[in-house]
Design a protein that fits this description.
Low-confidence stretches: 116-144
Number of helices: 6
Distance between the termini: 45 Å
Radius of gyration: 16 Å
Order of helices and strands: HHHHHH
Mean pLDDT: 77
Largest sheet: none
Helix content: 40-55%
Structural class: mainly alpha
Number of strands: 0
Number of domains: 2
Amino acid sequence: MYALALYRQILSSSRLEGNTYTRLDTEKLLAQGEEPTGRDPRDTQMILNHKKAIELMVDGASVIRFNRYTLLNLHAALAENLLDDANDEGKLRQREVGITGTTFIPLSIPQKICCCRRPMRSLTPSSRRSSRWSTFPTCSRSLT
């Protein structure tokens, strides 16, 4: 039951980003590691990234906090190998972005996005030793 709910969540989130996977494609990839033929490799990466981000939250549920550190780590997990510039993974964007086919305008400057100002804390002792989880920049300005 948990796996089915996980697959549905991953598929729904990925479809919001334009992913072309079906429910069956998603289940086969996540349960059996089978990649469907004829799909964009970025779609496969996106599905795997969503799984990784959910696992990060579930595995760290007892210690994870809603703060800047967590948000940037989730962004890094979700964006891995999907952005034009890999250096943008796990960072607040520095430029405006648009979403095709909608009138929604995302926040465009880091000062508006940077709302979690608690000190950064490691999720687990092992993640403290990993530079990937400990090198994110902090906000240069507060929102007060």
